[in-house]
Amino acid sequence: MASAQELNELNEKLSKLPFLNGYEVSQADKDAFKKFDGTPFQHAHLMRWYKQMKFEMGGDQKQEQKTAPAPVKPALECTSGSCHSKDVNFDILPAKGVQRDAKTGQMKEDPVYVAYRLKMFDELFAAQEERIAAMPKNPIKVTLPDGAVKEGTSWETTPLDIAKSISSGLANVVVCAKVNGQVWDLTRKLEGDCSIELLKFSDKEGKETYWHSSAHILGECMERYFGGALCYGPDIEDGFYYDMWMGNTTISSEADMPKLEKLYYQMMKEKQPFQRLNVTKQQLIDMFKHNPFKQRLIAEKNIGDTTVYKCGNLIDMCRGPHLPHTGKAKACKLYKTSATYWEGKADQESLQRVYGITFPDKKQLTEWVNFQEEAKKRDHRRIGTQQELWTFDPVSAGSCFWLPRGAVIYNRLQDFIRSEYRKRGFKEVVTPNIFNSELWKTSGHWQHYEDDMFTFKVEDDKWAMKPMNCPGHCVMFGSRLRSYKELPLRFADFGVLHRNELSGALSGLTRVRRFQQDDAHIFCAREQIEGEITAALDFFKFVYDTFGFTFELNLSTRPEKYLGEVADWDEAEGMLKNALNTFCSTNETKWELNPGDGAFYGPKIDIKILDALKRRHQLATIQLDFQLPQRFKLKFVRDNKEETPVMIHRAILGSIERCVAILTESFGGKWPFWLSPRQVRVVPIGKSQVPFAQSIANKLFDAGLEAEADPDCADTFNYRIRRAQLEQWNFILVVGDKELEAGTCAVRTRDAQQHGVLDVDFVVDELVRLHKNRALKAEHEFRGEKKEKLAAKEAKAEEK
Fold first, then answer.
1. Where does the record locate the signal sequence feature (predicted)?
2. Catalytic residue flag (residue 750)
């Protein structure tokens, strides 16, 4: 059974992830899923994850509860300042007028519960140390990843000792160790022969350990500063946070956060050791008598012995591992505070949350701060408003209103993919937006996605807006018996999709209710799988190269619970591996294996792109599906025998809405010429050149470019040039009397690069060429005056 803390942490994580293209299931998801006993109705984001997991893992969990369980009742009663039960009465909040340190703001006297908790910990820890000291000290062999073996002593040698035996420099940078595959504290004594991997901050588990320890330091600071009752304090993707019940007190960003951060630096300077203590469940209950929220968590945990950790005056229940001491955290930023509810439920206690992040050096923190500032500048919601690309309105929450210039981008992306379909053998189809629920019951989606659909009644039947295209494509394939000569049959669809995202989860273009995908489904015979996968990978590369993206490839294989025969899975995975090997050898790249992370109905290839800020995004997917063709009883005929095709799900841009958001932030609103809604601005120096400027704009527009003339000559010339640059017009053509007389224009770019005075017809032809070639850096590739002269010289030299 998952604990309330685990439920809350997972719900928090899932609230930030997009569900438009399906949730990417990892082994950690599967492990977490196994802990559930019933449905987590009271956690909205977790509920969606739970249903997706049931679908991915074959829906073999226990039957869902039909009604939501009653809310968890508090184990203890909290008033405005105290916590009460039959055997304890601790004042949690500080008394009015409590004396504080002038510099850090911390209370000069600790909350009452601190001394009680410390006394119990110290007694138990001393007894534990005695037990460890009495353990037999035998020679052990410690094997490193490179095969080297270090000598040690059981119950005496620690991973940190091993790091020191290699080099003092290594000992200074490692943060934890992996002992026989399990992540350990560096100061925890080894118990026998083992393998060790020393982890740094740059390693995934190292970063998790670093930020989890940092959360404990924050918890200590919050107790010293606010009193209160600590609740959850996990590491997250971007640092960590801690929740605290503080009665009616709220945290001020201006008054409290700077002092809290100063206190945090003091805790780091003290180099407080993290001490690990094994405790029984009863000891845990006794140790946290003062805290009703920890009591609730303990009551929900179906465990025996567990561990707590101490740093300074803080003691917290935790599985660990942790840093050797608080001084390992070198640079800190407490960057946000907000209000939340216990377990994310509005009918529970209101809590205060503080977010923070730490790094091993100040340089990394500075880089992170600069990154956050740059990310804010590039926020697609901000840029979309500034450039008048799209807007949202409560009358259709979660559905984007694409303004004329935004629609240019939207349509060009579709046209880009559509132009490739003809070359690559895809047949575009148009399918209905609404379907009878019987379709979704046949496909298996109704049991898992009904709550995510917009449903309504038509006469006596229940219908729904489609949230995906694959069942409709199955209907089209099955509309008649197919011949093997028709395979592979590639259906492509830009159909409008709707998913009933929670209103609180909607966010710009990344979480919407109405969207379109560059969706395609390939129906093929088994022996055609490898060729189709290779072709799909080539398609991905072509598209992502056009955007200037690099990408990563992962193969997710048969999960623990799957449908079908092992032999079929092995054959399909072998084909995917062959396709990946062929593709990677040709393109000098690599792929990684994610064992057990495939969908229950077939293996898949996950493709993640890296944007300009080196952030990872999953847009594309290739999934093999053995089950949907069987559900719809799809057949093709070969040698007078009926066979079932294999279905390949394929998307490159994925949700076009989400793709536009990623492109906006990656380009920072500086759209590449071919995709830009503002390609050419023609600026006349004076009124007398306005008609000539307009005629140039008309030529460009008739050639398929987004071009406008600037007729407003009331402002100064320099101001109009600067305005065009700030509005991100890729090219700015300037015309005066000389240009009017000669039929030329002066060509410059938004970045003030000048290409000289050129014939208007040449400029039009050159801009059309760059547009058709989808030049990523057209402003630099433009063949201006100097390049033309150089080309002429080279041509003459070749003639001689």
1. none
2. no
